[in-house]
Amino acid sequence: MKDFTVPMAIADLVPVACFFLGTQILAGDLGGRMKPLPNVLFRAGSLLVTLAGLFKALYKLLYALGAADLPWMSRQFFTNQALGFLLAGIGLTLAVTGRREQSGEAVGMVFPLVSLIAAMIIGLAAMDASLCFLASRMKRKSAMFCYITSFFLCLGMGYLSTRSFDSGVMNWIAEQVNTVGQGLFLAGCVILHRAGLRDAEIGPD
Fold first, then answer.
1. Are 43 and 58 contacting, i.e. CB atoms less than 8 angstroms apart?
2. How far apart are CA 56 and CA 58, in angstroms?
3. Percent of the chain's residues with pLDDT above 70
4. pLDDT digits (tens, 9 = 90+) for 158-170
5. H or E element at residue 113
6. Dihedrals φ, ψ of 126, to 5°?
7. What mean pLDDT, rounded, does the chain reach?
8. What's the rounded Cα separation, in Å, for the pair 75 and 84?
9. What is the largest CA-CA distance in the chain?
């Protein structure tokens, strides 16, 4: 018997919404200047991470309401989140480093080399490092702080995900960590957006 409640399930949607809004801000500011492949990778990866979190939150909600117990909605989370972060991280890194001509080869080489855990860490690190690069170029240390702190909180979420999530206490702890982490990610995106990211140079000098 899982200790899920309706408020817990609703709270689980908050970090999902923060991540989605943050990536939408980035897509709006950067998407028009990305080459097609990095743009598709970033958007597809961001959407996959969002959907992974959304389905997990809906699983908790349906279970808490006694409407259905669909374990696949929870089990898909780790795999889809890891692949989503990897895709988004590769796309954003290719955009800010300017490595466009070899981008197809880079994507093809990465997938066979990483496990799901490594994929999530590499993808998340690539995303936050790329955003810190842009924040540094735009002289927005507050945004860098947000992305760096968000990264380490997400790593903490990775540890918490190894614990039993049937417990209500563990769920609330994980949700609070995740909410703060994704809230900081969103804050960093808002800071860069207000600083003029839409017009900033995103490739190498």
1. no
2. 5
3. 84
4. 666 655 555 667 7
5. none
6. -65, -40
7. 86
8. 15
9. 56
Asked whether the beta carbons of 4 and 168 are under 8 A apart, the reply is yes
On the 0-12 / 13-18 / 19+ scale of CB atoms within 10 A, 143 is: buried
| CA distances in angstroms from 68 to 22, 107, 168, listed in the order given | 31, 38, 18
How far is residue 105's CA from residue 138's CA, in Å, rounded to a whole number?
A: 30
Tens-digit pLDDT profile for residues 49-99 = 999 999 999 999 999 998 888 989 988 988 899 899 999 999 999 888 875
Q: CB 133: neighbour CB atoms within 10 A? A: 18
Cα dihedral sign for 154, 155, 156, 159? positive
Please, which pLDDT band fits residue 127 given cuts at 50, 70 and 90?
very high
* The residue type at 32: G
Q: Which of 56-65, 80-89, 117-126, 128-137 has the lowest mean pLDDT?
A: 117-126
Q: How far apart are the C-alpha atoms of 133 and 16, rounded to whole Å?
A: 24
196 and 138 in contact (C-beta within 8 Å)?
yes
DSSP state of 197: G
Residue located via tokens 């769920």: 171
* Spans of all domains in the chain: 6-199
The residues, ordered by sequence, that sit 6+ positions from 39 with a Cβ below 8 Å of its Cβ are 31, 91, 95
Which structure tokens are listed for 194? 């207000």
Question: What local confidence, expressed as pLDDT, does residue 115 receive?
Answer: 72
Residues 6+ away with beta carbon under 8 Å from 89: 45, 122, 123, 124, 125, 126, 127, 130
